[in-house]
Amino acid sequence: MNNHGHEWLTEHGDYLYRFALSRLRDPHLAEDVVQETMLAAIKNPSFEAQSSARTWLTGILKHKIIDVMRRHMREIPASELMVEADASMDDFFDESGHWAEQPLAWDIPHQALEQKQFLQILQQCLSRLPTALATIFSMRDIDEMENEEICKALNITTTNAWVMLYRARMGLRKCIELNW
Prior knowledge:
Structural class: mainly alpha
Order of helices and strands: HHHHHHHH
CATH superfamily of the largest domain: Winged helix-like DNA-binding domain superfamily/Winged helix DNA-binding domain
Mean pLDDT: 78
Number of strands: 0
CATH class of the largest domain: Mainly Alpha
Largest sheet: none
Shape: globular
Helix content: 55-70%
């Protein structure tokens, strides 16, 4: 490993690992993508001082994570990707399709402790979702990827992506309201 590689690993390794783990939910996969990121950075040192090393490495890591998610989505049986209406979500809506009860305000509190507690609960709730739903939620709402990009990366239809994202958000909402 060249000097930059050792320096990058020392300075950014923990951050990159936490970033990968929060999206992949598997410590071994997270370690693997961080290693692949470092190898890619060393083999193709196109880093320019226009951005920070962390930003550049995170960009590489995001592509590696998407590759893993894409491979994983190919391995999930099609029956699991084709989502159907979930009867447990019906209690959130009335007959006209409006909220039966307005959602609680989800403003993240300004106090650091409360924010940290909220993020821990969010992470716990995310880890309880089925992998496909957690993946699409992470890509859209955490990484802020566009729907078209998600559909292309995961090889799913736009309709299926919207339904999966809806189910992920509703599952998270229910879990967070119970735990927060």
